[in-house]
Specification:
A hairpin with a 3-residue loop joins strand 1 and strand 2. The protein has 160 residues and is mainly alpha-helical. The chain has a two-stranded antiparallel sheet with strand order 1-2.
């Protein structure tokens, strides 16, 4: 397993990925209720994303992974990747509250889709350009680990 994917798997550990995915929107909403514009924009380091950029990233990843899941169950074998750094270039100019809302809507839609999957859907695979074949189950587990990784980062950012 690729080291980054291993980090996500380690962070998820034995947690239920669907429960993690279902809980993330409420955690982001709670942040949105307490953060003022200065807190959203504060950078922990010059080279690090601020809280608003992290939430925009989560919304974009939800969009990208939702597309990947749909590709897999539609029988598309080659996953289309995206360049997160290229997508992130405009995050600082986006409204974090809108990113939270976009994330919430996309996550609800993706969870509704996942609820319809049968065993064949969970076992369907796509070929990631860098990592090779990934099953829907592996994509979902990585997405949940990704949520936890960034939620940990947001907690640390806001605590520090």
């Amino acid at each position: 397993m690729d080291p980054y994917q291993q980090q996500l798997a380690d962070r998820l550990a034995d947690a239920d990925p669907i429960e993690v995915l279902g809980a993330t929107p409420a955690r982001l909403l709670a942040l949105a209720e307490i953060l003022d514009p200065e807190a959203w924009a504060a950078r922990p380091r010059p080279d690090a994303w601020n809280a608003g950029e992290v939430v925009a990233h989560l919304a974009d990843v939800e969009l990208g992974m939702g597309f990947r899941l749909r590709q897999a169950v539609a029988g598309v074998r080659e996953a289309q990747d995206f360049d997160q750094d290229a997508w992130a270039r405009r995050y600082a100019r986006l409204d974090p509250a809108l990113a939270v809302e976009a994330f919430r809507a996309l996550r609800a839609w993706n969870l509704a889709l996942l609820a319809t999957f049968d065993l064949d859907d969970w076992l369907a695979t796509v070929e990631h350009p860098e990592r090779g074949p990934e099953s829907v189950d592996e994509v979902v587990r990585a997405l949940a680990g990704h949520d936890l990784r960034h939620l940990d980062g947001l907690d640390a950012l806001l605590a520090g």
